Structure formats: C-alpha cells, structure tokens
Amino acid sequence: MSARIVVPLDGSPSAEAILPYVWGLLKRLAAEVVLVRAVDPPAAVMNGFHPILAATEESARDYLASQRAPFLRAGIPVRIVTRLEGAVPSILEEAGDPDVSLVAMATHGRTGLPHLLLGGVCEAVLRQVRVPVFALRPFPPPGFRRFDSWQESAFRNVLVPLDASGSSLSILPAACAFAKRYNARLVFLHVLDPQKAALAVIGGGDRARSREEAPPLETAAQQCALEGVRSRIVVDSGAVADRILARTRSEDIDLIAMTTHGRSTLSRFVFGSVSGDILGRSEVPLLLCREDRHHD
User: Fold this and answer.
1) Of these four, 14, 92, 107, 252, which has the most CB atoms within 10 Å of its CB?
2) Kind of pairing between the strands at 255-259 and 157-161
3) Is 193 among the domain residues?
4) How deeply is 193 buried, as exposed, middle or buried, from its count of CB atoms within 10 A (0-12, 13-18, 19+)?
C-alpha cells in the first residue's frame, strides 16, 4: 500500500460505518485520507435554479468538513472533495490518482452514493478501479465483534478463499502486502464440492489428498513464505458462502481477502449470489481486488 485512501461518504450513518476501520488502517499506514461526496444536481437546477445547486454543494462540503475534523486533530493529512456528478465517476476519478492505494467504503449508503456495494455503484467501480476496495457491511448482526481501533493488531487473521483454477491468486500480492504491514496471518481456504470430497474419502484419500485438488493453495503458501508472511492451509467442503462464513468464525478472522472474479466455484463472487450472501451476513470486512487489475 502507498499513500492515499479514498473514502466515499454520503451523509448517512451507514456510510460512516467505514470510518473506524479507516482509523484502524492508519495505525500502520502513513496515508492521506480523501473524503469524497457526490453531489447530484437537483432537478430544479435544470430549470435554472442554480442557487439550489450551490446550497447543496455547500451543505456537502460542510458535512465532509465535520468528518475531516477528527483526522486533522490527530495530525493525519486529509482532503475533502465534492463532485457534481454521479457516484461512480466521482469514486473512479479520485481512485485514478496514482498515489491512491485503496478505496474504503461501506456496503450501503443513502443519498448521493446509494447501495454502494450490493448495487450497481460498486459493481461498476470494481469493474474499472485499479486498486483494492476495502468493503464493510454496516449493519452488524447480533454478537458482532465491534472493531477496536486501539487494539495492538487490528487485523490478526485474514481469510483468503481460493478456487482450483489459479485465477483467484490475483489477490495474493494485495493479501501479502496487507499481512506484512499489519503482521497478520493468512488463512488460505479452498472449498471442495461435497461430492468430490466424498469420492476422495471413498477412494482411500483424506484431507491431505483433497489438497491436491487445489494446487493454488500450496503455491500461495510458498509465495507467502518467501515474503516472510505466516500462513496456513484449510480445505473444506460444502456450500461456498456457508463454509467461508463458518471459517470466518472458527478461525477468528478479521478480514476476508478475495478477487472479484474466478472461474470455478467463485466465478460470481462479487456480482452473483455467493458474494451477496457473504456480504449480507459477514461479520468482518472484505478486501476485494479485480482479478485482472495487475494486467492493466
């Protein structure tokens, strides 16, 4: 990671749920924070009532200034940006700066940036953005482990789901960089189809044999070892989303890191039913990378 984090906000508590995590990221990352709010021109502006637009933009800037104040008090460089355009171009324009290393946002917003992750905005952003997206579901279920930005290590264990195609290894550079910076352990997870897992057992195999069905796991672990990153391999079987969420709890996971595309079981991870299921139930944030972003 380098020197700038883009944080889209829309004035709602839902979008602001990302801010404690931004503080946690800044514990070990010297970065400038860019707070962005899109200002869609009101319909009245089309009829010549330009003072309405000026008042709307001023209100947006006042809101961002209030969110900027705690960062300034802590000596963290922060910039506010309002844009007279839609949410997607606003985010992409700021994220296109070469110094930006991350976009951090909650999964839902209200005005200006509606449905940030589960709707069309994040789909469009993830299809085009060149940097990882740190995404958080802002409505925690009962028993949600509240994020403590003052604890020694904000991110201790990072779950990295991989499929058998190898394409999901696109997440590895970002996951390793994240683990090194936050002294985290990576947990590589491959979810087998239940029928394949049963056949392996019938054929005299065991979990070790099942690992042969997922060669990217060993490759990932070896690459991490070269980077000095701790990791472990887990092979499971069952419904992909269910097993990922179950392992998130059993492995004491603080973050799920994954690519937005894959070929096998994870082929619709962000834009299909699996991702929606995970994002709708996950108790931890996600670090999402476009599969081909390193080839842009």
Assistant:
1) 107
2) parallel
3) yes
4) middle
Range 267-271 contact pairs with CB under 8 angstroms and sequence separation of 24 or more:
267/163, 269/161, 270/122, 270/123, 270/126, 271/123
Cα of first residue to Cα of last residue in the chain, in angstroms, is 17
Portion of the chain with pLDDT greater than 70, in percent: 68
Q: Are 183 and 158 in contact (CB under 8 A)?
A: no
Decide: 202 and 252 in contact? Cβ < 8 Å: no
Residue type for position 285:
P
Residue 278 resides in a domain: yes
H runs (alpha helix) in 9-148: 13-16, 19-26, 50-73, 87-95, 120-128
Q: What is the mean pLDDT of residues 38-63?
A: 67
User: Please, which residues bridge with residue 33 across strands?
Assistant: 5, 78
Residue 104 belongs to domain with CATH number: 3.40.50.620
Distances (CA, A) of 22 to 35, 94, 107, 177, 267: 11, 17, 15, 17, 29
State which residues form the domain around 223: 157-295
pLDDT at 114: 45
DSSP 3-state of 115: coil
Whether 43 has a pLDDT exceeding 70, the answer reads no
Count Cβ atoms within 10 A of the Cβ of residue 115 and give its class: 0-12 exposed, 13-18 middle, 19 or more buried.
middle
Distances (CA, A) of 70 to 12, 20, 49, 103, 265: 17, 11, 35, 19, 43
Angle at CA 235, nearest 5°, toward 181 and 189? 30
Render pLDDT for 102-146 as a digit per residue (tens, 0 to 9): 999 887 644 445 445 545 676 677 778 889 999 888 765 554 455
Return the higher-pLDDT residue of 18 and 151: 18
Domain assignment of residue 146, yes or no: no
